[in-house]
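Dear support,

I submitted the protein below through the web form. The confirmation email said the job was done, but the results page showed an empty box. After a refresh the structure appeared. I'm attaching both so you can tell me whether what I see now is the final result or a partial one.
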Amino acid sequence: MNGLMMNVALSVTSIMEHAERVHGTTEIVSFTRDNPRHRYTYLDAFRRTRQLANGIAGWGLAEGDRIATLAWNDYRHFETYYAAACSGYVCHTINPRLFPEQITYIINHAQDQYIFLDPDFLPLVESVAAQCPDVKGWIVLTSAEHMPETSLSNVMCYETLVAAGDTAFEWPVLDENTACALCYTSGTTGNPKGVLYSHRSTMLHAYATMMPDAMGLSRKDVVLPIVPMFHVNAWGTPYSCPMAGAKLVFPGSKMGDGETLAALINEEGVTMSAGVPTVWLGLLAYLKSSGLRVDTLERIIVGGSACPLSIMEDFDTYGVQTRVGWGMTEMSPLGTVNSSPSDRAAYNDEEFARTRLKAGRPIFGVEMKIVSDDGEEQPWDGVAFGSLKVRGPWICSNYYKLDESDAHAEEGWFETGDVATIDADGFMAITDRTKDVIKSGGEWISSIEVENVATDHPKVAEAAVIGHFHPKWSERPLLVVVRNADGQDLAAEEMLAWFEGKIAKWWTPEAVEFVEELPHTATGKLQKVTLREMFKDYKFPG
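What the results page shows now:
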């Protein structure tokens, strides 16, 4: 027997309609190239979204056609999100930090029809446009008076396009499984892979992120999404914030500028923010040098890469709660959040620190398991580890236009590529990538745990550990360190001594090498493939 409930489709359109009717007066503030503090409301935003949708409707696109963006976090990008997806097209967000060859590949693979771009990225687009024959037009996200000169053909001004559109638009009724957004992985092991999100998956992910132990969003919040809108939908905040009625503050191109971020937080009353560790290091450095505080800020979500304990402890001094999040492009992206144990008194300082560093518990909707090399599921005891697999309603079932995927080899599960442990309380900890684990003398070493200890050294800016050939032990960890401004005198002996009593003795790196910088992907992730290539001829001392 079925229940007698209405079968209403879960669509992104409903977020827009809800926010417009219920939260219409709530503000959206943006830092843009042509306006350092643009300010309007959800009511204004979605009126303009209808105008934009009318403009796009004249292009003769078919349902499911891809409309791409190369843009910062601001109100125009926000409008494009909704106008494209709610019209039945796919909003394809492109990461401008990728190599031009990768961007060309992505545009052509997705067969993007039109591309909305920030003026900052015009030189990049001009360099690849000739190699993108499917693109029919380029829309520059600015006003007519700020329109830059360009060699591109078929260029349109965004504000001119919006102004010409009627404020009334009949949104199509879409099946909830209709595709609404597309994002490509950073392509660390080959070409980037496309992840195609549905209206249903996006809605469910937005619901989940709002949970108290996830982002904990409400209409009382003022949210500063520093994680880019071109990277996994800014972790869902362009959907969850209007759903909750939270005020949005977009930092535009200033997402890495500590001074601007501090000003936006203090002047707009930001209560919650989300970003990668490097962003928080920049903000903390500015706060320390300026003596300023961020008293309205209650909590931050840190993701994208491992969060050093020092960031958490520094934010503790400002009364800001740090929540570690973990996920992937393939997971929309949120999988786990660590809001720290509620029973703080039950932990000593060392145990509490160790627990804070974990990726957290899976949010409802995400199932996970760890399996050994022979496929046996491992217990949740905090000791056993294995390859981490996940499944859920906002996790991709396959890659876009890719018939076979090793990551989806086991039906119903996605292979994350991470090695993890899960304790009895459900706290998951990433110990390595499957291709990054170090096996020394038949025993496994977690490169991530060694890196976490290394980055806690007061003279270390960044550190990476790779496995390297050793004639006796087969493989030993090599530590590669970037000194910070105060650590130019840091020597190998001091660095290695730092590990004493903090990790197992045999986990201690065999040697340390100092470099000016470490290689990263376009999304800021450490590129260990490149690092191994850099040290392929290295020989351990002695």
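Response: this is the final, complete result; the empty box was a page-load delay. The mean pLDDT is 93.
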